[in-house]
Write the structure tokens for this entry.
Amino acid sequence: MIRDLMQLFCVFFRIGLFSIGGGYAMLPMLKRETIDRHGWLTEEEMLNYYAIGQATPGIIAINTATFIGFKQRGITGGIAATLGMVGPSLVIITAIALCFARFQDIAAVQRAFAGIRVAVAVMLVFTLHGLVRKAVINRLGKILAVAAFLLLAVGGVNPVPIIMAAGIAGMLFGPKPEAAA
Amino acid sequence: MIYLKIFCIFFKIGLFTIGGGLAALPLLLQELTSRGWVTEREFIDMVAVSQSTPGPIGINMATYVGTKLDPLGGGLAATAGMVAPSLIIIMLIATFMRNFAQNTRVQNALGGLRPAAAGLIGAAVWFILVRALADVGRFPEQGWLHLPAVGLFAALALLRFKWNGYPVYFILIGAVAGVLLL
């Protein structure tokens, strides 16, 4: 029992450690570790877990880890897998956050970060472009995307009520059940 | 009780992070800057660090802010809050409704949620873009576009068109160019 939990923790620690850039970067590693090496689930099951992870609140990587861990060893398994997934972040980021305050007043570091901000902006614009192409596929989507952008960027409205309203709008104005089936 | 407060704020952020990837970004931006927990510039630097280190970006951001608020246990409290909604909701769904993602009502709600999330992420990206290009390093009071930064943006965008490398390489190039040019 303890050994199984340790194994879940270690496998997801490794996945967390080698998924740089988040989200979709994790998929190949997740597949290799959980399907090919350990046979914990089939490819079809993983796609289903991933779909659920996208449809539910929370970070997809965490949702998928929780799902696989829970399937293997119940509640403690889900917790062990999730702890493994966040382990590398906790260690690495805590170390960086504790050190960074000491360096941030150096002029060269400030100039480096001015350049880094530009690099981050470039990557975010490309990621956003891919995201918009996948998520905004009809007229309702266009209206909601533009409205959400303006409400936050111009109005400074809290995103939480915007998200709730968009979910309700999707249920009200989306395709009818019989038409969707 | 600072830990409980950190946990609750990140629980809320985790609960409304839907659609993955950068979905946590607009929520983090709003919650953290409006509370004064991080400055605008710190927020962008945190995104840079989170993108170039291992692990999901949302978790990295949570750990970073938590550690900054309380070096001892703040990172743990923030990360625990961020993943708690996932743990609860996924375990409930795994137990009671395995075909959740295929449910028509869920699909319709997502049809509204996904484009809105994209719009919100767009607003967060806009926030970062404006500050990266206008508000560079030594000119915090200056609102105009900083031309070397715009040039660097164009060069990196061209590179990104040709080559889809790891974010950490772009960030390293940005750092070197920043020291030399900005």
Summary: The radius of gyration of chain A is 20 Å. Chain A has eight helices and no strands. Chain A touches chain B through 102 residues (CB under 8 Å). Chain A has a mean pLDDT of 88.
